[in-house]
């Protein structure tokens, strides 16, 4: 309250009987102090529980706690109480584990064999318009064909394990116009598992690459094969002209985008 000291406000609050001023120090009841961390601890426990429900980690027997908050006695006790059937390991200087891991990775990227996708990755495509499903504002007429713009074509999804520097399965696309000599592939990311369109809430534009297709002989039958490769801090998008086997590559830096 304005015009009153911290001591006066605290002593007059509903917690006044559970806190005390000793000289210039404030002594707080232990249950109140623990309550300050309850929401955070509960959130972490629920997140770990949801991870352990996934089939890929169903037989997990050990939980390794790293990071600064792992040194908190309250979080340690909460994890052990919630998962009594798991062995919980907390290394010495667990707060430095993340930093040490980053340094090791900087010197040798092969120390990480695979990573779990934090986002769903895909490109913006045009597909056949689905009456009653696709929004009318996304309907476009191209040479007599009704198409839907901005559809999200997924290449990797949230929670998927991907080996470092290993390309995702190739997906094929075709130009939407027979005389099209260039195809722009725009890459998007989102935290959603199954996004429908690239302008859905939470979708973020990551970057793009342009594929040259000067030979229009085959018209709409021309095919582009697209793969994504996840490296250290970059995503490489490879687009292959199937007829000529010419490959166009774009490297998109995760660090330069707020996601």
- Radius of gyration, taken over Cα atoms and rounded to an integer in Å: 26 Å
- Beta-strand fraction estimate: 25-35%
Low-confidence stretches: none
Q: What is the string of helix and strand elements? A: HEEHHEHEHEEEEEEEEEEE
What integer is the average pLDDT? 86
Q: Structural class given helices, strands, pairing?
A: alpha+beta
Report the strand count: 15
Distance between the termini: 39 Å
Q: How is the biggest beta sheet arranged? A: 5 strands, antiparallel
Shape: elongated
- Continuous helix count: 5
Keywords:
about 260 residues; 5-stranded antiparallel β-sheet; 15 strands; 5 helices; elongated; alpha+beta
Fold blueprint:
Layout: H1 6-11, E1 19-22, E2 25-28, H2 30-35, H3 38-52, E3 62-64, H4 73-82, E4 87-89, H5 97-107, E5 114-116, E6 120-128, E7 139-142, E8 145-156, E9 161-163, E10 171-173, E11 182-190, E12 204-212, E13 224-230, E14 234-241, E15 246-253
Parallel strand pairs: 3-4
Antiparallel strand pairs: 1-2, 5-9, 6-8, 6-11, 7-8, 10-13, 11-12, 13-14, 14-15
Structure, described:
- With 259 residues, the protein is of the alpha+beta class.
- 19% of the residues lie in helices and 34% in strands.
- The chain has five helices and 15 strands.
- The protein has a five-stranded antiparallel β-sheet, with no helix packed on it. A four-stranded antiparallel β-sheet has the order 10-13-14-15, with no helix packed on it. Strands 1-2 form a two-stranded antiparallel sheet.
- The mean pLDDT is 86.
Compact description:
The chain is α+β, with helices and mostly antiparallel strands and 259 residues long. The chain is built from five helices and 15 strands.
